[in-house]
Amino acid sequence: MVWDVDDTLFDYTSADREGMRAHLAAEGLLAGYGTPEQALVRWREITDRQWARFSAGEVSFEGQRRERVRVFLDVELSDAAADAWFQRYIGHYEAVWSLFPDALPALDALAASHRHAVLSNSSLTVQEHKLRTLGVRDRFESVLCAAELGVSKPEAGAFLAACEALRLPPHEVAYVGDHPEIDGRGAAEAGLLSVWIDRGGPYAQGADAVFAHRISTLAELPALVRTDTRFGAPSTFG
Prior knowledge:
With 238 residues, the protein is an alpha/beta fold. 47% of the residues lie in helices and 9% in strands. GO terms for molecular function: hydrolase activity.
């Protein structure tokens, strides 16, 4: 089984919202954006645009972070100044990290029956640190990220790299992610069992995701993947 991290296992949206709220307050910037909510909406829109550029190979992982800061502040900043601003935000963001309540029970329920890996469109440094901080890094045989792979979801190559890391063919691997297109459609078109965890986020509006199994909580996952014995070879990890 291969997992997405952000907004699948880890409550990224809440951490980003609360971390940015605390950061803008500390920087004295909240008043310049009308309301905290307006500032947070703008930050998320900029993040999505810059992340799309990174996924398309137009900018590096570090570059998309710097551009998020420059566009958000609407000022020209050196790389060092943009990095420093982003790192101050990271401090507030990490202070509110948490797993979703259904994450550990699902991992526990599947620990003995399935092998596990992570596939993320982030970077290995970021996600390794996150998984260790959250206390779940040892649950996964492999952690693969777009910044190091050189290919990102929804490209088939990213999903196939995760299958290769598990030494399993795609039709024997399930992928669980929160984005109906990047995760759901991407995994399905790469030949994996695609599971979309619909937590009611911004991507869910108007999505049908008929190509993926749709669940609203990870509590539904063990029963779903156990209905077909092709998925998840017995664990030999640890």
